[in-house]
User: What shape does this take?
Amino acid sequence: MPLVNGGEGGDDLTRGRCATQKPRMLDFDPARPAATPRDASTVLVLRSSDTTGSVEIFCVQRHPRSGFLGGAVVFPGGKLDAADGDPAWLPSVTSPAPRSESFETPQARAHALAIAACRELLEEAAILPVVGDAIDDEAALSLRAKVRAGSSLREELARQGLVLDIGRLVPFGRWVTPEAESRRFDARFYMLPLPAGQRGHHDAHETTTSFWATPASVLERWMAGEISMAPPTTRALELLSSVRSVEEALALAGAQSLLPICPLFVADETAPFLALPGDPAHPIAERRIDGATRFVMRDGRFVSETSS
Assistant: This one.
């Protein structure tokens, strides 16, 4: 029984809303053979706001024709490429954050996952952490244009004498797409304080709009049906809603388990739901993330709820 989670968007995000469209969200079929998840990286870019007195997060909206989470509001990220693990990168990057080793597998090393995170961040958001904050907003946009035109990011950084500062990426969590989904990813989530002098810009290709907002305000728009988001995105925003600064957010990340979270899709006839580790319906008894233990389908979206 396939199950699709979708919804309607709003107006242009440059005016604080999403372009109207019907997103292609998750496609669950418990009878489908489980696909092998692909390694991926996602980055939550944060800044402190004097206006709101809170932390703000950078979000992008995926192109509606994207094969996975089309039209959804997400954090910048994407798949690991083989070139991300090239040993030639090592002289051009710092050491990854200490807890990054928890993200490693035999197929994906910590530095390669962090490089993938930075590469995707540049492509989708024109944000890049380099040692000494040696590039500003204009330089980040120029670097993205060169990479899009065919230049190698590693070679371009070397030409400009820049070192990629992957040590600034703070591991936050690890989500694996449920087995019932046709396209699966093993996504490592990082936090990154916004590099000085940079602002963030969507690429008008993979991502169609972008915005800065408090986690609570993004959740409010999601609950109002203005935007669509996947459960890992909503849970991250729920956890960040209580923090008031980037420093608090990084401390929150440091307290999280980095064990993989693979929700189990349960095709309940009343209300289908995704059970997380620690939920009675999940085979793993230990909790691996704070908050409710399941996401229940309500009005076309998965909402956090604790099992009764």
Summary: The helical segments are 110-125, 137-148, 153-159, 215-223, 231-240, 246-254.
